[in-house]
Structure formats: C-alpha cells, structure tokens
Specification:
The protein has 137 residues and is an alpha+beta fold. The chain contains two helices and six strands.
Length: 137
C-alpha cells in the first residue's frame, strides 16, 4: 500500500523550514529492512529518535540511496513495525527569500553613501555558504 503525505518543518527544527512531499511505502527494493546488504536504501546518522517525528510514536532515521549516498527520505519504526517516507520533493521558499533579502541588503550597502561594500559582499558570501546547501539540495 502506498500513501502520499505532505509534511512541514518548523522554524524550531530548521531556520529555513521546508515542506516535503512524501510517498509512504511499507518496503523498499531489496527487502523490507533499510539496512539490508542488497537494499536500494540505507539508514544513516544517529540512532532512531522520537524527537521531531512527523508520526507520533514512531522513531525516525534518515534514508540515503545505497548507490550514490543522496538523501531519499526517512524510515519510521514502532515496536517492530516499519514504513518508509520517500521524498518526492521539497519546497525551499524561505531559503530563496532569505537569499533575496541578503542580496538586497548587499546592494543597498554598495550603492549607498557611507555603505561598506566590502563587508556587505563578505556577508553575502557567508550567507550563500550557509544557505547554499538548502537551495541546491
């Protein structure tokens, strides 16, 4: 059985909250467990946790592609029962708005009298270094 689900991160979890469109499935290629040697996905990161889970009572872990290592979703487990949330896509509106605001501030500092263009460009570069992964991936 497959179910489509939409989840939204909170500002408390991520400075740049994103929404995720997920497909919920009961198993993945290569078997039902994500840690299988021949599986298409692998669980990585810290042990499963109930903190910030989207499904009450279910501990989650990060799933990555076994071939390339890219993040593909999460596993959710409770008392031996497990299912997987495979990410179809994610919204990045807040990250784009943050970068746009940083660019406007940089432009303002560079064209205004008494503005410090060098510091503004450095601040923009630091912003892009921090926010870039949220926009690109």
């Amino acid at each position: 059985r497959t179910v489509r689900f939409r989840a939204v991160q909170s500002f408390l979890v991520n400075l740049f909250p994103r929404h995720f469109d997920l497909v919920l499935v009961s198993s993945t290629v290569g078997g039902g467990d994500a840690g299988g040697a021949n599986g298409a996905v692998a669980e990585v990161g810290p042990p499963a946790t109930l903190e910030y889970t989207w499904f009450e009572g279910r501990a989650h872990r990060i799933l990555v592609c076994s071939g390339c290592g890219e993040h593909v979703g999460w596993s959710y487990a409770a008392k031996g029962d497990v299912f997987f949330g495979l990410a179809l896509g994610s919204g990045k509106l807040w990250a784009y708005l943050f970068v746009a605001a940083a660019m406007m501030l940089c432009l303002y500092q560079c064209v205004s009298e008494g503005g410090n263009c060098i510091l503004a460009v450095i601040a923009l570069a630091l912003t892009m270094a921090k926010v870039g992964p949220h926009i690109l991936f």
